[in-house]
Backbone:
């Protein structure tokens, strides 16, 4: 193996928290690399084009690099530019579109990582893979039709079309409002009795008023039971309703890749949260020298950790790695 593929640390995931870990590793003088299966900050890239963050810009900063926004709440495009500039300015060693396929322990207390392009050896691993890559499936007939998407980008495409939006949280509300304002005939299908409580405070009254006035139709306590090319069936409290439909935007949420953690030997809790085993002090898992950072730490509870409250993981992990190196010396 080429010596250039031997590292003190390999970081899996080039989202904001993976980049934050890289910045801390750089400050500590570690020899490291960041591996990412998609583009830089891939999850943010997949956010709706016009998305506005709930947080202010300073709460999204990493590595003491100022994030200057034109507004009180930064947008997706501003965040993409900020993280790209941070990676460029600090010359972070990021390898994009390189998926980690396997990870195994090898002699000398090291790990070997096999990716879609290369093989690496390292003493320490940080897994910061987020949760935006695996959508929750509706598990209904027709979900695989081309008219169905779990990723909403921008509204113009849906102008003058009959659009169904599934869900009642931020992504669903944004998609419903934006497509309606571009001339779409919008129907929301909502499993619960009301719009989600976590919806951004400036969007919640907007969507509720549009539903109340009838501009956007909504079926509450309902769910899709079948999708066909030009219509779909909805199970409602009053029975099955069939409506004409051109496109389905299924904002049903996303889940972390916990099967990867389980496959490499990280223990998960037996309940429905499936929270990975790790130390709250060091972020180290039951696998020695393998750490978790960011939202992946919450298992299926994907609403407990964000960029704002998991940036601290980077400093905790690098401090732990340095202390172990000093102990060895």
Residues:
């Amino acid at each position: 193996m080429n010596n250039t593929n031997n590292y003190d640390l390999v970081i899996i995931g080039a989202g904001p928290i993976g980049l934050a870990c890289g910045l801390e590793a750089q400050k500590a003088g570690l020899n490291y690399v960041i591996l990412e299966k998609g583009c830089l900050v891939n999850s943010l890239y997949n956010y709706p084009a016009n998305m506005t963050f709930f947080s202010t810009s300073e709460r999204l900063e990493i590595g003491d690099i100022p994030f200057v926004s034109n507004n009180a709440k930064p947008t997706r495009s501003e965040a993409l530019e900020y993280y790209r500039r941070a990676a460029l300015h600090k010359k972070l060693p990021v390898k994009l579109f390189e998926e980690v396929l396997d990870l195994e322990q090898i002699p000398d207390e090291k790990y070997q990582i096999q990716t879609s392009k290369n093989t690496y050896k390292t003493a320490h691993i940080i897994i910061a893979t987020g949760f935006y890559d695996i959508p929750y499936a509706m598990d209904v007939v027709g979900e695989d039709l081309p008219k169905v998407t779990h990723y909403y980008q921008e509204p113009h495409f849906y102008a003058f079309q009959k659009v169904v939006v599934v869900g009642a949280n931020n992504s669903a509300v944004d998609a419903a409002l934006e497509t309606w304002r571009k001339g779409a005939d919008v129907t929301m299908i909502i499993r619960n009795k009301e719009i989600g409580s976590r919806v951004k405070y400036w969007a919640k009254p907007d969507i509720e008023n549009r539903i109340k006035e009838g501009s956007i139709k909504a079926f509450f306590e309902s769910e899709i039971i079948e999708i066909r090319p030009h219509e779909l069936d909805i199970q409602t409290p009053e029975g099955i309703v069939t409506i004409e439909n051109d496109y389905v935007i299924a904002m049903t949420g996303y889940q972390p890749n916990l099967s990867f953690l389980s496959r490499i030997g990280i223990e998960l809790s037996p309940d429905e949260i499936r929270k990975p085993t790790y130390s709250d002090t060091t972020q180290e898992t039951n696998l020695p020298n393998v750490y978790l950072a960011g939202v992946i730490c919450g298992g299926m509870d994907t609403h407990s950790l964000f960029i704002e409250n998991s940036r601290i993981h980077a400093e905790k992990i690098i401090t732990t790695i340095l202390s172990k190196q000093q102990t060895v010396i």
